[in-house]
Amino acid sequence: MSRAAGQPGGGAALAAAETGKRLAAAQSLNATLDWSQELLDAEAARVDAMAERGPLDGIPIALKDNIVTVEQPTTCASRILEGYQSPFNATAVERLRGAGALLGIKSNMDEFAMGSSTEHSAFGRVKHPLDPTRVPGGSSGGSAALVAAGVVAASLGSETGGSVRQPASFCGVVGVKPSYGRVSRYGLVAFGSSLDCISVFGRTVEDAGRVLSVISGPDPLDATTVNRPPMPVPQPRQDLRGLTLGLPREYFPADLHQGVAAALTRTIELARELGAEIREVSLPHSAYAVPTYYIIAPAEAAANLARYDGVRYGARRVGAERDIRSLYRATRGEGFGAEVQRRILVGTYVLSAGYYDAYYRKAQRVRSLIADDFRRTFASGVDLLLTPTTPTPAFKAGEKTNDPVAMYLADIFVCPINLAGLPAVSIPAGRSEGLPIGAQLIAPSFDEERLLAAAAALERAIPAEAEVR
Amino acid sequence: MTIRRDEVLHVAKLAELAVPESELERLVEQLNRIVDYVAQLDQVPADHMADPFLPGPSELTPREDVEGAVPLARSPVQLAPEFKDGFFLVPRHGAMEDAS
Amino acid sequence: MDWETVIGLEVHVQLRTRTKMFCADRTTFGDPPNTNVCPVCLGLPGALPVPNAEAIRLGTQAALALSCIVHQTSVFARKNYFYPDLPKGYQISQFDKPLATGGSVSFDSPERGRMRVGITRLHLEEDAGKLLHDRFPGKTAVDLNRAGIPLAEIVSEPDLRSPARPEPIWSRSGKSWCMPG
Predict the structure, then answer these.
(1) Could you tell me which of A15, A356, A462, C171 has the fewest CB atoms within 10 Å of its CB?
(2) What is the SS3 assignment for chain B?
(3) What does the alpha-carbon distance between residue A239 and residue A301 come to, in Å, rounded to a whole number?
(4) Low-confidence stretches of chain C (pLDDT beneath 70)
(5) Are strands A61-64 and A106-107 parallel, antiparallel or unpaired?
């Protein structure tokens, strides 16, 4: 990842022109919600005028449209925020700007980050770059597609229940989720406050790691950031000698998709050849992760989305009665899409009197058990866990939209990690009938350096575009 | 059916969401599907219960009482759907009265 | 039938800080509407609350002045409801783990002699904005300068027996707010 030919001054302008061409060529993917050549050029001029070259100098980086920027609208792919222009930048955006990144692209997503296919955008679905009849995954499908299609070298997405690793796996790119508290959430539109993480897509682990090191680090504007220095760019390693990789049996069911199973078998073998010790482990509460997530996330979302009421910003519609309640109900009823409404209703239900203990309190405790499974395993001498990222390759558009639960199950291998707040990465691990498959590495909290160094070593060894047998 | 039609309407009211009559039945069905699915957690034995878990710092670090709020690149008047003389405006609820 | 008068009080006290409970806006009274506002107290997408150390300190002092037990760990929680003076659609308050519990205030009542009123709890929360219903016909005007100002909510046990008593209690303990520190 280097900006156009490493030229001093003017390099960003070239990158802006090239990126504009690629965006225009990739229009049919519907991966973007806002960009313009004027803005890219203006951003490039700003970068080229910087006195010091930053570590991301002139590199175009797309932003998921739930990360607020002053220069462009932030819609979260929702009609309720159509045209909303934030009066402040997210901290991650300020850090990227400070590092010289070329910004100006907001990418399409599932509305308010709720979804696993980017089919729930109010502005049309995103198409998989390798097969337009398929989904790129979600909710950060636009950001994933732009990297996979070679439009940008890296992009930011967000994860609440796997929304960067899952599309990374579907699209054949790298997706890194940092530890919760590693990257400031100030300026990330909140969905599930105890789960949300700004995360990174890149063509390689190294690229993603460089972006992550720029945006990570404590922020006085986000009290949930942990007081640790920013993650340094991981030191490359040649092999996996000295590392113990755990394979949790719950992530390798007997009926796992053949292509996924084959890709993982090959990956495990390569890890062995690189000198890793392989050990079978168990995370016994894994099966409860998706139901736990679908109580906690909607509950937090119901509260976080209460601010969208048409009073201070965003779209407003007044219903027949023309009073405050009708303003709320019409604005929200018409502004939110069906999946967002479902989640708000589930969330409100599980928090309501009489149900709070049975659902929400229970889910919080099961979350503990899930986090404990990981903690115990890492404490037993396992350095990293290796699993499939998704149970299948990218599915067809429309295949899962009729059954909300079927869609939720796409996150079965990624969402436990969000519940536990751990860092994880998905790397391309092969193709099955031409579709990418991802392998996932999971690390203990704040162990991103070792995670990414190991992932990079494995990445070098895997023939990611080769069909698996 | 765990959740009845009238309960869904009640929850929609709490969440200030207008649900058109034509979509109500499908919504009730889908919500039941979701709630029935997450109710699996009933299977986790009560004696295995741990304290709630939250990632991130174990305690909040408060900030000093010093002025310096994030400046707004756009003011309320530029953000608001309806704004007059410095105030956000909403339709008046019939029963409200001015407080002191 | 004879009725017995039983009174408990719930008082909201503004804590005298320079800035709001969860953001660094000024708390000055009487400024032009919506001029002491920022992303946090406007409830803008992406804004996050950061608690005010001085508000916590003042709340703790008030709790000690009321002879409460101050808890090492207390938790901020969201109280969810919709109203135009509530920018986030929830108020950040404290629910089952408040800052302090179990205190009391004693005073001399002319009619009843020495009296003791129990203090159930004291917790920290943020104020809502201000609504004006008569300024514009058919509309309610919203001013969020007050939204987010730190409050201590103090709840007493139902130990009072006549309505005339509350005033001496609170003006007495009102004085105590100025004394500590």
Answers:
(1) C171
(2) CCCCHHHHHHHHHHCCCCCCHHHHHHHHHHHHHHHHHHHHHHHCCHHHCCCCCCCCCCCCCCECCCCCCCCCCCCHHHHCCCEECCEEEEECCCCCCCCC
(3) 42
(4) 164-181
(5) parallel
Domain that holds residue A206: 15-469
Distance between CA atoms of residues B70 and A448, nearest Å: 31
Question: pLDDT class for A387, splitting at 50, 70, 90?
Answer: very high
**Partner C, chain A 189-228, Cβ-Cβ below 8 Å:** 189-190, 220-224
Residue B97: its pLDDT value, please? 46
Strands (E), A234-335: 244-248, 277-281
Spot the catalytic one: A121, A139, A184, A213: A139
Among B64, B65, B72, the residue with its CB nearest the CB of C38 is B72
Q: Is the ipTM of this complex over 0.90?
A: yes
In chain A, % of residues over pLDDT 70: 98
What mean pLDDT do residues A83-94 have? 97
Instruction: Give, as one character, the DSSP assignment of residue A251.
Output: G
* pLDDT at res. C109: 77
Q: What is the pTM of this model?
A: 0.95
Domain membership of residue A340 (yes or no) is yes
Task: Check C54 against B65: CB less than 8 A apart.
Answer: yes
Average pLDDT of chain A, as a whole number: 95
In a domain, A4, yes or no: no
Output the CA–CA distances (angstroms, integers) from residue C91 to A306, B97, C128, in the order listed.
11, 22, 8
Contact: A312, C45; criterion CB under 8 Å: no
Mean pLDDT, to the nearest integer, of A121-150? 98
* pLDDT in the model for residue C110: 77
Distance between CA atoms of residues A60 and A312, nearest Å: 33
pLDDT band at A318 (very low <50, low <70, confident <90, very high): confident
A400 is catalytic: no
A256-265: average pLDDT: 97
Q: Looking at residue C179, what is its pLDDT?
A: 34
pLDDT at residue number C169: 57
- Beta pairing partners, A319: none
Checking phi first, is residue A100 left (phi over 0); if not, alpha (psi -120 to 50) or beta? left
> Average of pLDDT values for A460-468?
94
CATH code at position A419: 3.90.1300.10
- Say which residues have a Cβ less than 8 Å from residue C96's Cβ, sequence separation at least 6: C75, C77
Neighbours of A275 (CB within 10 A): 13
Chain C residues closer than 8 Å to A84 by CB: 45
For chain B, domain boundaries: 5-44
Nearest CB neighbour to A313, from listed B30, B62, B79: B79
Task: Give mean pLDDT, residues B86-100.
Answer: 71
Q: Which residue has the tokens 């950040």?
A: C92
In a domain, A143, yes or no: yes
User: Considering only CA atoms, which of B62, A222, B59 is closest in space to residue C56?
Assistant: B62
Total domain count for chain A?
1
Mean pLDDT calculated for residue range A433-460? 98
> Is A139 a catalytic site residue?
yes
Interface test with C, best of A82, A188, A309 (most C CBs within 10 A): A309
CB contact residues (below 8 A), chain A span 305-334, against chain C: 305-309, 311-313, 324, 328
Of the residues A78, A185, A222, A307, the best mutation for testing chain C's interface (the one with the most C CB atoms within 10 Å of its CB) is: A307
